[in-house]
Amino acid sequence: MRAHPIVQSLAWAALLGTALPLPAAETLPLLLAETEQGQADVALYLVSEKLDGVRAFWDGQALRTRNGHTIQVPSWFVARFPAQPLDGELWMGRGEFERLSGIVRRQTPDDSQWQQVRYLVFELPQSPGTFRQRALALRELTARLALPWLQAVEQWEFGSREALDKKLEQIVRAGGEGLMLHRADAAYVTGRSDVLLKLKAWHDAEATVIGHQPGRGKYAGMLGALRVRTAGGVEFMLGTGLSDADRRQPPPVGTLITFRYRELTARGLPRFASYHRPRDDL
Fold first, then answer.
1. What superfamily would CATH give domain 203-278?
2. Across-strand partners of 200?
3. Per-residue pLDDT reduced to its tens digit, 139-192
4. Beta strands 256-261 and 203-214: pairing type?
């Protein structure tokens, strides 16, 4: 399969030791996870925490979002980053996504705010070898650079489903989102692939806001619920998970939002669906 032109260019840039900027606002060909359905042989995977951060791709010159937008960062933050591409997440800690998103969106970066941000990297795009080999190379790279805000994501191994589930429970209890399982023997690929699986106590999905249901009682004068439609055409009301601020200024009709749910009914409706946030399209 022929690689995406951007990926090819980045690979040559990495091999030649040069930095090649990406075109602005072009969706990047990154690896995206499938959902783990309880059937994976966990012994074949390296496992890490699923970070609730902002996906960021280092192209050798700039940090970019998955949609290709340049992230404005203080010069010191990336001054010693390598020429080779990196893939990871900007992160401030569990439960800090909204504050992080505000920092990342600023066109004029605030030094004091960026001192709280780390770039946690989990992949060396277009590098040869298996993921196990790339993960080791990534740890060696970050150790050599010795930048406190540039770190390789910790990878674990589990010999049984029981051990994996215990780790998931531990992460969720501590306020984390879940786990990511990456095939240890996988070559570097892009697009949505089952070489990378996400495992969460809750599932998440996306839907488009198609209407607003007025609130009643204590929510009179505010939003009561969002009417949403999934890409598959399933429509339902989403009232749980909305903050008072969300109800005063709800996502406009046409907004793509993320919601969480436990499982699907026989009719394809999400059980115990809860609003999470607008999808991050930085």
1. Nucleic acid-binding proteins (2.40.50.140)
2. 178
3. 999 999 999 999 999 999 999 999 999 999 999 889 898 999 999 999 999 999
4. antiparallel
Query: What SS3 state is found at 44?
Result: helix
Contact of 127 with 84, CB cutoff 8 Å: yes
- For residue 100, the number of C-alpha atoms closer than 13 Å in the C-beta half-sphere is 21
Pair 203, 37: CB distance under 8 Å = no
* pLDDT tens-digit series, residues 181-218: 999 999 999 999 999 999 988 788 999 999 999 999 99
CATH fold of 31-200: D-amino Acid Aminotransferase; Chain A, domain 1 (3.30.470)
Q: Are 53 and 91 in contact (CB under 8 A)?
A: yes
What pLDDT does residue 263 have?
76
Q: Determine the residue type at 230.
A: T
Q: Are 135 and 46 in contact (CB under 8 A)?
A: yes
